[in-house]
């Protein structure tokens, strides 16, 4: 589904991504871990060109999204993105947040978008919040709304950029539970996270990044039980 070839990204002369090569197949749940500043979020944001790569290629479902002729906005419709901060529109109700993109892009009629929104809200047990505003929700509820807002576009892949890092500890579980449901249903996912329990339970592969490179990757079982790279071992010894 996604193929990354020699991906590079620099900010004002500082090389943040240093020639990454990676292939993500349909249905995989790829978890990206590593210390702060290792390039994890930049890598994720390059996958849908929220950050413009400085070099290399990113192929999504057979299209090179780095090609100037690529209609990136159309491709982004197939790539749901969930951020650390919820980024809900404060002046819109929960249902309006969910229906805005499908109706604005004419993917659905307003009636179809409303029906889809209520299906998604029922799924996460927040149907009664359809007419509430983001400020009236807890952080965990807002992040779950952000996830179903992305799901309303029927994406082929979901990208998660540390989706629980802005939450109070007691709210983390409800967001991870929803992500686990998506994984069990076969959604292709790329997840940058510090939640090692999620990586163990849900990931099909764990990638360890440091200094702008993927230094090691393996199945969760092998990654945590038998890390090969000294920097991976040092990282895991500090967080486990």
Question: What would you note in describing this structure?
Answer:
It holds the Pfam family ABC_tran. Belongs to the ABC transporter superfamily. The chain has nine helices and ten strands. It is α/β, with parallel strands linked by helices. The chain has a single domain (2-238), classed as Rossmann fold, CATH 3.40.50.300. The protein has a six-stranded mixed beta sheet, with helices on both faces. The chain has a four-stranded antiparallel beta sheet with strand order 2-1-4-5, with helices on one face. Helix 3 (94-104) packs across helix 4, helix 3 runs parallel beside helix 5 and helix 5 packs parallel to helix 6 (169-184). The longest helix has 16 residues, at 169-184.
């Amino acid at each position: 589904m996604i193929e990354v070839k020699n991906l590079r990204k620099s900010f004002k002369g500082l090389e943040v991504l240093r020639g990454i090569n990676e292939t993500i197949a349909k249905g995989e749940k790829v978890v990206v871990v590593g210390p702060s500043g290792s390039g994890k979020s930049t890598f994720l944001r390059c996958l849908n060109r929220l950050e413009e790569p400085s070099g290399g290629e990113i192929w999504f479902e057979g299209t090179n999204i780095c090609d100037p002729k690529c209609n990136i906005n159309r491709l982004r419709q197939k790539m749901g993105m969930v951020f650390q901060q919820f980024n809900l529109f404060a002046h819109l109700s929960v249902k309006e947040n969910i229906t805005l993109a499908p109706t604005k892009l004419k993917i659905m009629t307003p009636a179809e978008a409303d029906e889809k929104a209520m299906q998604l809200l029922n799924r996460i047990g927040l149907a009664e919040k359809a007419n509430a505003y983001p400020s009236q929700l807890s952080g965990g509820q807002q992040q779950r709304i952000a996830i179903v807002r992305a799901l309303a576009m029927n994406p082929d892949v979901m990208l998660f950029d540390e989706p629980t890092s802005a939450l109070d500890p007691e709210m983390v579980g409800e967001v991870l539970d929803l992500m686990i449901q998506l994984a069990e249903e076969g959604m292709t996912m790329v997840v940058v996270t510090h939640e090692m329990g999620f990586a163990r339970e849900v990931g099909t592969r764990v990638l360890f990044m440091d200094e702008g490179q993927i230094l090691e990757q393996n199945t969760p079982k092998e990654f945590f039980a038998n890390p090969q790279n000294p920097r991976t071992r040092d990282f895991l010894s500090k967080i486990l």
